[in-house]
Design goal:
The chain has 200 residues and is an alpha+beta fold. The chain contains 3 helices and 11 strands. The chain is globular, with a radius of gyration of 23 Å. It starts with a helix and ends with a strand.
Length: 200
């Protein structure tokens, strides 16, 4: 009887040990509950650069621009064009400022490029997916009025913008922007845009 009880105790111990080992293994595989890559929503595309990747709302008409067509100041761009006008844009700028060592300095430099007349709605610190040393970033939400120039929407059209700035794991500053006609992207879309970023 004592031997049977001992065997049962050993079996329970082995079962518990196996369960604990499986749980530990799952935790290691999932990075302690954190994701190694940003979550790109279904239907979205992805812009990939040497410093980061970011999703864009492909299902809402945004299309990646070729190297030949985009500005040299941008490492990647996705545009939405309607009636010959650029009504939305996602852009990635790398190494866009000198003397930048952290997310705060990157955001200050990127914020200076938002332009006069823009209204800042919120500024917040965010944690991005990807390399641990580069995950700290800053998000700036803002609105501005379209100038109507260079194939932008008619003068006076209100636009929504978000810029996320930081420094990658090799100390290269980055600024990722999404601009769109106000109301064409929801708050959920803008949050998804930030959540899709993976720094390298």
């Amino acid at each position: 009887m004592a031997a049977a009880t001992a065997r049962a105790a050993v079996n329970r111990s082995r079962t518990l040990g196996a369960a604990v080992a499986a749980a530990i293994g799952l935790t290691l595989l999932t990075g302690c509950g954190s994701s190694d890559a940003g979550a790109v929503p279904d239907g979205w595309g992805k812009l990939d650069t040497k410093s980061l990747s970011v999703g864009y709302p492909k299902d809402k008409g945004y299309k990646e621009q070729s190297v030949a067509d985009r500005s040299k100041s941008n490492a990647a761009v996705a545009l939405k064009t309607e009636g010959g006008l650029r009504t939305g844009m996602v852009s990635v700028q790398l190494d866009f400022a000198t003397g930048v060592d952290d997310a705060g300095e990157a955001a200050a430099a990127a914020g200076a490029g938002i332009g006069l007349g823009a209204t800042r709605k919120a500024t917040s610190d965010v944690r991005l997916a990807g390399e641990e040393s580069a995950r700290d970033a800053r998000r700036i939400d803002y609105e501005f009025t379209s100038s109507g120039k260079e194939q932008t929407p008619a003068s006076g059209t209100r636009m929504t913008g978000v810029v996320v700035a930081g420094v990658d794991s090799k100390d290269v500053p980055f600024a990722i922007r999404i601009n769109a006609v106000k109301g064409s992207l929801s708050a959920k879309d803008l949050d998804a845009f930030v959540g899709s970023i993976t720094v390298k």
